[in-house]
Amino acid sequence: HHHHHHHHKSHYPSWPLEIPGAQYSPVSWSAVTGWADDDQLAAFKTFRASCRPIAARRQPSTTSKPLGGSLRAPCRAAISAKIANAAQARRFFERHFRPLEISRLGEADGFVTGYYEPVIEGSRVKTDVYNVPVYRRPSNLFVRGVKPGATGLPNKGQVFRKIGRRKLVPYYDRAEIEDGAIAGRGLEICWLKSQTDLLFTQIQGSARVRLEDGGTVRINYDAHNGLPYTPVGRILIDRNIVPKEEMSMQRIRQWMDANPDGAKELRRQNRSYVFFREVQLSDKDEAVGAQGVPLTPGRSIAVDKSLHVYGTPFFIAGELPLESEQSKTPFHRLMVAQDTGSAIVGPARADLYFGAGNEAGAVAGRIRHKMRFVMLLPNSLDPVAQGRNMPLPKARPSNKIAKTEAASVASAIPLPQARPVAANRPAHRAPSHRRHRSGR
């Protein structure tokens, strides 16, 4: 049992930020490795897309998240700023933000995976070839605390169906739905060739379905059945079918194609099931993330929405296998939080969006890497900028301290307070192939 030592708040100046289970330390811009090598103009354009809904709000959003509504000031500046090149964009970010190195308590680095938008073949009508339905959200699906018909259901929380007038029971699981539990109700948006195509579309959260007449159906996450998400890749590793270091989305697909019976059993271990809506987008349009703005390949990230605010810029640095499976391509890019996923959990955890199609999928599928995370903190949050001259929190704890009892961590490093629960969570829950995109 963990005991919290409650300190009197008056002992410490109030640092404006508390992120559960995180450790962080302010750094200078010159200490941000790779900052000078990025193209901040590309990042600025993506940031500005996130800013439009933020700046348009009449009231700052009332959120309990650490950044609160503090993005409003830099967002309004971004919309009116005349930024024409990378140097101007870099100065914009340096003027309006301060860099904060961030990671999970007791760890030096954050963790990234990748995701993409599959392009798959399908049909508007059921045929011998296209016989796997893509379902829209059923009308008998209820989420506790959400009115029926509400747009955008939470990606966490209990989901029920009604029996008779009153009785609520858990929603059908993947096996029941595959076996036809909701078939024939007119919920079919289109039909795919295989359950594997459907599973991967559900994991990625959206898809472009190519029809034989040359048209395209665009589908996006709308809701899920509320049952826990079980990563199929993890099961293949645990059963010693695929070695951990060889795991990728490609490997899962290869194994499933070669073992249809095994694939069926494996899929059904993941009882979670995603429902889609059709979206009207042209082939030129990128998929829309949970914030409601179109994603930018190579600049948009999905983050843990219980901790982070959409629109927050993160500078992510390290090496990634972009060119090939073995390559160590230097990656230092300012990314913008525009999406989320139920598998994306923790303060320094991101899913990098790579765009649509097989090439994007091949790159996204091999990314499971430790990276350095620098969160850009709006100056409006900074106590020094507000003239209060407060001391900054001490530098991040050493690993040794962080591993000791959480309570003693709290007394050793008063700011931020360690949350024992968060500190003891398993490190990285979820590579990209276990991702479920979330609704808005």
TrEMBL record:
**Region of interest: Disordered:** 384-440
Q: Which residues form the signal peptide?
A: none
User: Keyword Ligase on this protein?
Assistant: no
Keyword field: Cell wall biogenesis/degradation, Lyase
Q: Which GO terms describe its cellular component?
A: outer membrane
| Enzyme Commission number(s) | 4.2.2.n1
Q: Which Gene3D superfamilies match?
A: Barwin-like endoglucanases, RlpA-like domain
Domain of life assignment: Bacteria
Q: Which InterPro entries match?
A: 3D_dom (IPR010611), MltA (IPR026044), MltA_B (IPR005300), RlpA-like_sf (IPR036908)
Which reaction is catalysed here? Answer: Exolytic cleavage of the (1->4)-beta-glycosidic linkage between N-acetylmuramic acid (MurNAc) and N-acetylglucosamine (GlcNAc) residues in peptidoglycan, from either the reducing or the non-reducing ends of the peptidoglycan chains, with concomitant formation of a 1,6-anhydrobond in the MurNAc residue
Single GO molecular function: hydrolase activity, hydrolyzing O-glycosyl compounds
The biological process GO terms on file are: cell wall organization; peptidoglycan catabolic process; peptidoglycan turnover
Ranges for domain Lytic transglycosylase MltA come to: 119-277
Where is composition skewed (Basic residues) in this entry? Answer: 426-440
Q: What is the protein's name according to its record?
A: peptidoglycan lytic exotransglycosylase
Species: Rhodopseudomonas palustris
